[in-house]
Design goal:
Length: 339
């Protein structure tokens, strides 16, 4: 059904969509390329919240180059929207541009779209096909698709341990024990998340800022402090640095209600950074969707066992998908088992 050229054009659309990473939530990453006579004449992506959508940017790009989009084929990674939100509908832009053929990677499950974009285009006589590199698009938009289905954020855990599975060394002041290059990857992960959650013990021991600092970003994740006994110091960095924080205190009524609350706030990916008690509570409830287990070669003198091992992750419904290298550290990536 699809040619190698079709796949290459859609892959290019997926590649340009990445330029919006960390800037478009709660909207998904979307890319678009316009093709005429086997040549890409323009490209666009959703660059920032409130900015042009990918299709609109691609049309503008074509016009700025003096290339007419009339009669072109549009390769788009997500079904074009047909409703007014922060921008006008993308279907209107495509119709106005004179595009004759639209190829889409993934349908939009959001109730405001869900097939309506396809129908409007087809009713106007535009040829529409979908499903090209659908799995690749789904992986790129995974938090958005998860939120559309469950109306709560995808839960990602990141935990650093020493060579023997310890999360801390009680013989020393609280400090990071992983490499600088690993920290760069952690901040890249933070930038891709809408909220970061830690427990009260992490605030008391580490006084972390939980912000993105090693990459340029126009937004910071919401900090969520799980503190049902309300014992954290209100002078801690997360409460005084001016960035958004919510303290889940005496009104805490369980993990799933908390995720639903974050989902109502349109938070699509939650990063849990500690500590072990908090992480184990999410694992026990089966609420973890992916787990990054970062292992250092450092050996702690007075170790604090994490209790995180293959058995614990498997029992939580996770399977080992791959191993990555972050600087000097080895990272096991575990994902929720799918049927």
């Amino acid at each position: 059904m699809w040619t190698k050229e079709d796949e290459a054009f859609m892959q290019h659309a997926l590649d340009v969509a990445e330029r919006g990473r960390g800037r478009v939530a709660p909207n998904p990453l979307v890319g678009c390329v316009l093709v005429k006579k086997g040549e890409i004449i323009a490209e666009g992506w959703h660059d920032h919240l409130g900015g042009l959508h990918a299709e609109q940017m691609a049309i503008h790009d074509a016009e700025s180059k003096g290339r007419s989009p009339n009669g072109a084929t549009a390769y788009v990674t997500l079904e074009p929207c047909n409703h007014y939100g922060r921008t006008p509908p993308c279907t209107e832009a495509l119709l106005w541009s004179g595009v004759k053929h639209v190829i889409v990677a993934h349908a939009d499950p959001n109730p405001t779209v869900r097939g309506k974009g396809f129908q409007v285009l087809r009713d106007a006589g535009i040829s529409v096909q979908s499903g090209l590199l659908e799995k690749e698009a789904a992986e790129q938009m995974k938090p958005f698709l998860h939120w559309c289905e469950h109306r709560r954020p995808m839960v990602t855990v990141k935990l650093a341990i020493d060579a023997n599975g310890s999360v801390d060394d009680r013989s020393e002041e609280a400090q990071r024990f992983t490499s600088e290059a690993c920290l760069d990857e952690v901040h890249r992960l933070r930038m891709d998340c809408d909220a970061i959650l830690v427990g009260a013990e992490t605030i008391e021991r580490d006084n972390p800022s939980l912000t993105v600092r090693r990459l340029e970003t126009e937004r910071q994740p919401l900090r969520v402090i799980l503190d049902p006994k309300e014992r954290t110091n209100q002078e801690a960095t997360v409460y005084t640095d001016g960035y958004d924080t919510i303290q889940v205190g005496a009104d805490y009524n369980g993990l799933l209600p908390l995720l639903n609350r974050l989902g109502d706030m349109e938070k699509q990916r939650l990063l849990i950074e500690g500590g072990p008690k908090t992480i184990h509570s999410f694992l026990k409830e089966g609420l973890v969707d992916e787990f990054y287990l970062v292992q250092s070669s450092v050996v702690h003198s007075e170790p604090v066992p994490s209790g995180i091992n293959e058995h614990a992750l498997t029992q939580a419904g996770l399977v080992h998908r791959r191993t990555e290298i972050w600087g000097e550290e080895s990272v096991q990536v575990w994902m929720r088992r799918t049927n």
